[in-house]
Amino acid sequence: MANTHNRSLELEVTVISGEDLRINDRPIKNNAFVTVKADSGGSLSSLQDSTKPDVQSESYPYWDEKLHVDLPAGSRYVVVEVCRRSSAAVDKLVGTAWIPVSDFVGDYTPENYLHFLSYRLRDAQGQRNGIVNISVRVITSSYKGTAASSSSSSSPSVPKFGIPVDREKTGGTVTGMPVWYPNQWKS
Amino acid sequence: MGSCFSDVRGGQQAVGGTRQGPIGGGGGGGNNGGHNDAVDHFFRARGQPALFSQIELSLSASKLRDLDIMSKSDPMAVVYLRKTDGKLEELGRTEVISNSLDPAWIEKISLAYQFETVQHLIFHVYDVDTKYHNLPVKTLKLKDQDFLGEASCVLSEIVTKQSRSLTLSLHNKNLQVGLRNLGTLTIHAEESVASRTAVEITFRCSHLENKDIFSKSDPFLRISRVVESGGSLPICKTEVINNNLNPTWRPLCLSMQQFGSKENPLVIECFDFNTSGNHALIGKLQKSIADLEKLHKERNGANFTITASHHGHEKVLRSQLFVDQFLEKQQYSFLDYISSGFELNFMVAVDFTASNGNPRNPDSLHYMDPSGRYNPYQQAIMEVGEVIQFYDSDRRFTAWGFGGRTYDGTVSHCFNLNGSQDGYEVEGVEGIMAAYAGALHNVSLAGPTLFGQVINRAAQVAGHSLSHNHSKYYVLLIITDGVLTDQQETIDALVRASDLPLSILIVGVGGADFTQMEKLDADNGIRLESSTGRVATRDIVQFVPMREVHRGSISVVQALLEELPGQFLTYMRARDIKPRAQMPL
């Protein structure tokens, strides 16, 4: 289960590149851009950020752009949307990746670890459509309570460093159980 | 191995020259910033390592025996490599220094540092008689000289030290402790400058010919190195750019180890990508790195040529190659990290499933032969352990078993091989062997073959170590006789572990069909995908069946180790982690 943490997080997400992006099964021509936001909905500007479109590259775009996204307490996913900007018409959705917060929070690594992550994108029909490569780092965490564990197996808390913490330690490390999506995609 | 471009997705990605990001930086997904299968296969088949570091040894000695009556000894040193068959291969000799019992020789001896083997070095010091002094050192017959002493060590012992120096006591050939002190020999190892030099080049082409019928060409470049035998050997290729006759590719990063020297001629070919794998050659040209640098400075283009079909003449094309960016840089080498204190931590997981056969039965893969001959498990542990042990300062290794029924009657998929409750570590390779032998008595074989728990545990250990420092890199060796039953769970565990300082080596023993295991080793460019849609950040798995026949002087298992330094460097460079002692590059 995704880790339901009780604190808000500030994320630094570097959107690096995309691979094999298509619309209607044809490689896109140019102008792909990425929006990263928290799953708890809303279009508050602090809750989402977008890259510039990559004008030059086609279906293998390269952005290498840093975005800042706030993750409110209780968020379970970070949503990464790849779209193609069209000058004539409305932006077209290429694909979306739902990134469980547990993939970069509460796993085996220290809190400010730089995570390099890659995800399969799914288009609006749920079909596989390319890969997006990002890196994520948690910047600060304002503590609002203890980290609740929603996993059945627990292990001793990971020693944290660099952040003076004044809380009781409950065994709260998620040991990487597969995450269940709201809708289970078929491959 | 087949063509390097045999699958579309993998084929479209850059190979061999991408920037050292974990994801290749330039659309080169599972390619680790390094390896082109065809290249590796070519080198390995000829017994040569693919990527290695050139080392130069400088020798000096002190308090040598004085054998001459009127003056002091005139010493010369000879360096040998002891091969697996015990024979000595001479690597080189120093010059003769007159009249000195504390010589510091100037002549250096070169050799290639190979991470994946244990390189035994033997040093002999001779006193050369005056009548030979003006002859070239190579021509001297050693049996005519006076023997002063011998020393031996393993190359890894020298290069892992911060000082990169080792001092050894000289002894007699038969290791008899002589009455007199024979003195000491000091060996200092230095990597050649080439191991740290790299160039980053941005290529652009203009006026490429159109090879496609309904659209434009999909061009990519392949760069090969000319070899002495006259052929050329691919070292890297760019990514494919769709539908463009004037493409600019992402920067290629080439290390000097790949291109040899700046003057070495390189063949640059431009192909039109075809999903069939039959790429059409648009044109080619030959330039060295120095030539490319010149093209960049002068902002000139170089014309491609193509062999005209009828006459065999080279036809000069309108298509041109430009070097938009050329950046020479120094990067830290693997040994830079190791000698500054970075370590490789070895972990072993042994298969205790019933398919191995009852250990008391001579047919069992776990049978301990009273003659002392190693079973496949012992062999794999030794071959990997004896190489890696030099890179771990405290020699405490992790040893697990999986698929066995332990003392409490339950089957465990990750139990401590030493039978202890809380500690999974043992001392030295001999400690692993002892724990293994003990476990064969105390654990009964069960099943099924599941890797997920062991991988998760290893990932946990690697991840926790990051809280303390970033200088430990973990190597997990899984030795198994059987085919996985939890393929998806294993893939999930591997994907989660791919972003950690961890590499996984899997050795298959026995006669099972391991095709399914080869899918875990993403050498074909297809990145592993977990059940949650996450894709592996790096290719951290190497798999080899032990029964594979291997030409060349290293074993199949040791060939697995070849990729480790590359995987280590990819991890460190992607995070901009530098060696501790900040020596200037």
UniProtKB/TrEMBL annotation, chain A:
PROSITE patterns: C2 (PS50004). One of its GO terms (biological process) is defense response. Residues 1-115 form the C2 domain. Pfam families: C2. Residues 146-175 are annotated as: Disordered. SUPFAM superfamilies: C2 domain (Calcium/lipid-binding domain, CaLB) (SSF49562). This is BON1-associated protein 1-like.
From TrEMBL, chain B:
Residues 37-168, 181-306 form the C2 domain. Gene3D superfamilies: C2 domain (2.60.40.150), von Willebrand factor, type A domain (3.40.50.410). SUPFAM superfamilies: C2 domain (Calcium/lipid-binding domain, CaLB), vWA-like. This is Protein BONZAI 3-like. CDD domains: C2A_Copine, C2B_Copine, vWA_copine_like. The gene is LOC115751677. The lineage of its organism: Eukaryota, Viridiplantae, Streptophyta, Embryophyta, Tracheophyta. Residues 1-38 are annotated as: Disordered. Residues 18-33 have a biased composition (Gly residues). Belongs to the copine family. It comes from the Eukaryota. Residues 345-564 form the VWFA domain. Keywords: Repeat.
